[in-house]
Design brief:
- With 532 residues, the chain is α/β, with parallel strands linked by helices.
- 39% of the residues lie in helices and 19% in strands.
- It has helices spanning 25-38, 52-61, 88-95, 109-116, 120-135, 148-154, 156-168, 185-199, 219-229, 250-260, 274-285, 306-314, 340-348, 360-374, 383-394, 443-455, 507-531, and strands at residues 6-9, 42-44, 70-76, 100-106, 140-146, 173-178, 207-212, 233-236, 302-303, 332-333, 402-411, 420-429, 432-440, 466-474, 485-492, 497-504.
- The chain has an eight-stranded parallel β-barrel, surrounded by eight helices.
- Helix 1 runs antiparallel to helix 11 (274-285).
């Protein structure tokens, strides 16, 4: 093995079973490239016998030149009463032309008799014959013992007998699956130890692995405990999505195994790619990385309380369990009225290294934050707007444009005609006026379109920017429909993501403020890149 613990990513197979997840063939190829660059050992890329799309993928994937990972195709044991050579599912596994094959079989007698409706003896024969069939044809063979821990608790001797059948037939990896995701860590430890003892008596060595689901919230803990018990093969999905509550998030457990247990999982230097790769895979899957995902989430190293921020600046390990740079993440001080001057100074230093905790700019920003937050503004989730606030306080921001006037009208006709909105905007750029109009599915969408159209001839780079999220929060419900609202807009140019905020009693005006900040932030970033 190239590493102490090998990583087996099932994003394209088990992850694809998650609600709302659908990969095109090109999506799957892009995920394979990303995971290979990260350095995982194995990529379970789908079930070639389940649909033509997966078979097309395997045909194209065979042309990829992978530097670190090998592909694995997935399928069941042979059907009852059928020879392996006659089973079309097993033939499709061979047609996938991958280095490895993963087959799943039943380790829980309940599933054998009540789901498969076969005898206990026939199930063992299905496991043994399928394993031997694929091993004889040169495959690295992963045997996934489905529902192993439930089966081991219900009928330990039979569950272990199914494992022995796979071992005796030549399986290279025995993967113990907590398929229902309901096991506790102590059960995982004891089950892994029992299988390791059995594997020690086998004629040839096999690596023991773990495949956990998160239905009880223990997937990461169960995976780490399995490794501590002796498992050296870990399965999961990078971002953690999968059927029901999802799979073990590899992004959350790889650092624990590497950094905390001292067992390398990835090639040297690859761990720092984890943050970016997790976002890359999530983007392909059209999902967001959970903000509280350990190690790589946006909140993983965020600090808000003033005392915490002050302590972090003095000694990082006071409130951080690892250096965020190890996984490619970074420390983030959330800006709020409880953040304190130390946190503010640390953020301002990114723009002006001379700023200290006791600098007049720091004091002015602290006071301004308190005043603005009392009015309903909130900057802890709006990094773009906060940076613009800092630049204004430093006297380093000259607006790229000014909105002279705008108008938004929404129509709600009766009958079959769909409702629509229209926006008109007049902007001033370097002494030149531009007027533009647009139609949208809603008032904010229409105003965004009109503003972009008006600025297009001055700033063509804005064509790459799109709104990726839009949130509205009523600040004080006591005022009912006259209450102020806070609008948060998340924007992206396909590379970077930033968030801006606007506050007003008028939801359209609050949206305008957030939109203007979003565009200004993008233009400033591009301007400073050109200077570098």
């Amino acid at each position: 093995m190239p590493h102490n613990v090998e990583i087996f990513d099932s994003t394209l197979r088990d992850g694809a079973q998650g609600e709302g997840i659908s990969f095109s063939v090109q999506d799957k190829l892009a995920v394979v490239r990303a995971l290979d660059e990260l350095g995982v050992s194995w990529i379970e890329a789908g079930n070639p016998g389940s649909n033509p799309k997966d078979m097309e993928f395997f045909h194209l994937a065979g042309k990829l030149r992978l530097a670190n990972a090998a592909l694995c195709a997935f399928g069941p044991t042979r059907k009852k009463g059928m020879k392996p050579a006659d089973d079309p599912q097993l033939q499709s596994l061979l047609s996938a032309n991958t280095t490895a094959a993963a087959i799943f079989g039943k380790a829980w007698d309940l599933h054998v008799t009540e789901v498969l409706r076969v005898s206990l003896e026939e199930n063992i024969a299905m496991i043994a014959e399928t394993t031997k069939f694929l091993k004889d044809r040169g495959k690295t063979l992963f045997y996934d013992a489905e529902h192993f821990f439930d089966g081991w608790l219900a009928n330990p001797s039979y569950a272990l007998a199914t494992i022995k059948a796979a071992l005796d037939a030549g399986a290279d990896r025995i993967v113990l699956c907590d398929t229902n995701g309901g096991s506790f860590p102590n059960t995982i430890t004891e089950g892994v130890q029992a299988v390791l003892a059995l594997a020690a008596t086998a004629h040839r060595p096999a690596i023991i692995g773990i495949h956990a689901h998160d239905d009880s919230g223990f997937a990461a803990a169960n995976t780490v405990m399995a490794v501590k018990a002796g498992a050296r093969h870990v399965q999961g999905t990078l971002v953690g999505f999968g059927e029901r509550c999802g799979n073990t998030s590899l992004a959350a457990v790889i650092p624990s195994i590497e950094i905390k247990l001292g067992l390398p999982c990835l090639p040297a230097g690859k761990l720092e790619l984890l943050y970016d790769t997790t976002r890359r895979v999530a983007e392909i899957a059209n999902v967001s990385v959970p903000e509280n995902l350990p190690y790589v989430g946006a909140h993983a190293f965020s600090h808000k309380a003033g005392m915490h921020a002050d302590a972090i600046i003095k000694i990082h390990k006071s409130f951080e369990h690892i250096d965020p740079a190890l996984v490619g993440n970074s420390r983030n001080f959330l800006m709020s009225e409880v953040g304190g001057r130390s946190a503010i100074a640390e953020r301002v230093k990114k723009l002006d290294p001379s700023i200290t905790r006791d600098h007049p700019v720091t004091a002015a920003l602290a006071q301004k934050l308190k005043t603005l937050e009392a009015e309903g503004w909130q900057f802890e989730g709006a990094d773009g707007s906060f940076e613009l606030l800092v630049r204004r306080e430093l006297g380093r921001h000259k607006p790229f444009f000014h909105i002279d006037a705008y108008r938004v009208v929404s129509e709600h006709p009766t009958g079959e005609t769909l409702a629509c909105s229209h926006a008109w905007v007049k902007v001033l750029v370097d002494g030149q006026h531009e007027i533009a109009a647009a139609e949208g599915e809603g008032p904010v969408n229409a105003m965004d379109g009109a503003l972009r159209r008006a600025l297009a001839r001055f700033f063509p780079e804005l064509e790459k920017v799109r709104l990726s999220d839009y949130k509205v929060r009523v600040i004080d419900g006591i005022e009912a429909t006259a209450a102020k609202v806070r609008v948060l807009i998340e924007s992206t140019d396909g590379i970077k993501v930033w968030t801006t905020v606007g506050v007003s009693a008028d939801i359209i005006d609050a949206s305008r403020a957030a939109l203007v900040d979003s565009i200004e932030y993008k233009l400033i970033g591009d301007m400073e890149k050109e200077k570098e």
